[in-house]
């Protein structure tokens, strides 16, 4: 079994942990050493806090080649803060675990990067390209030929049309839907239930059916 440390805690960290536990039910793959967390001291869902989130602690574990990491600190409001922290840790990309829930259906013609988490009942079509540190939550549908760039985020039940591009950090909310061949701009936020019929600008906040811009991301 490979060893894994989850960077984060309650929220996305425990969702990733649940996926790991489901993977292990089918095939014993991961030994969870615990969490790195700056705020919690008590165990999270039965797993210990083994240190703070800083480069000194991380480097101690990087020296052990059988230990991998999952970075769960994803927040639509604090993405830049958490992205900066991720870079500060200087973890080699190949040491980030990609977690795929056993119920996900993923085409063998797709490509998936490092540190990505794919949750239950997700469907990913052929010729898709999914980058690093991408979050795809339960029951989402990713159409063929779509490209999800690094740090993009697909909330549960979202539907991405064929050949759609989510640029770096783009966020697609719960039950949101896109037309095929559109792009969602860098660090844009498309809200719950939105229907995207045309390209979304970088840093735009989008809501509604059809989706319209109501502001920009700071």
Strand order of the largest sheet: 5-8-11-14-17-20-22-23
Whole-number mean pLDDT: 95
Percent strand equals 25-35%
Distance between the termini: 42 Å
Query: How many alpha or pi helices?
Result: 3
- Tell me the series of helices and strands, N- to C-terminal: EHEEHEHEEEEEEEEEEEEEEEEEEE
Uncertain runs: none
For the largest beta-sheet, the strand count, sense and barrel status come to:
8 strands, mixed
Please report the total strand number as a whole number: 23
Shape designation: globular
Q: Can you describe what's shown?
A:
With 218 residues, the protein is α/β, with parallel strands linked by helices. It is 16% helix and 29% strand. Strands 5-8-11-14-17-20-22-23 form an 8-stranded mixed beta sheet, with helices on one face. It has a 5-stranded parallel beta sheet with strand order 7-10-13-16-19, with no helix packed on it. The radius of gyration is 17 Å and the shape is globular. The mean pLDDT is 95.
């Amino acid at each position: 079994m490979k060893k894994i440390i989850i960077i984060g805690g309650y929220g996305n960290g425990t969702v990733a942990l649940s996926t790991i536990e489901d993977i292990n039910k089918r095939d014993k793959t991961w030994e969870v050493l615990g969490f790195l967390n700056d705020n919690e001291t008590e165990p999270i869902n039965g797993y210990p806090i083994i240190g703070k989130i800083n480069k000194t602690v991380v480097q101690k574990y990087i020296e052990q080649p059988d230990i991998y990491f999952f970075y769960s600190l994803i927040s639509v409001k604090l993405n830049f803060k958490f992205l900066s922290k991720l870079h500060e840790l200087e973890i080699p990309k190949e040491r980030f675990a990609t977690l795929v829930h056993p119920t996900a259906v993923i085409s063998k013609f797709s490509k998936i990067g490092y540190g990505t988490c794919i949750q239950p009942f997700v469907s990913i079509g052929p010729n898709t390209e999914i980058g690093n540190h991408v979050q795809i939550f339960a029951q989402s549908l990713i159409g063929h030929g779509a490209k999800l760039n690094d740090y993009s985020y697909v909330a549960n039940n979202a539907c991405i049309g064929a050949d759609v591009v989510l640029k770096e950090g783009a966020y697609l909310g719960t039950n949101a839907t896109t037309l095929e061949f559109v792009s969602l701009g860098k660090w844009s936020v498309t809200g719950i239930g939105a229907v995207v019929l045309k390209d979304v600008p970088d840093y735009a906040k989008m809501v509604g059916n059809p989706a319209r811009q109501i502001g920009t991301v700071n």
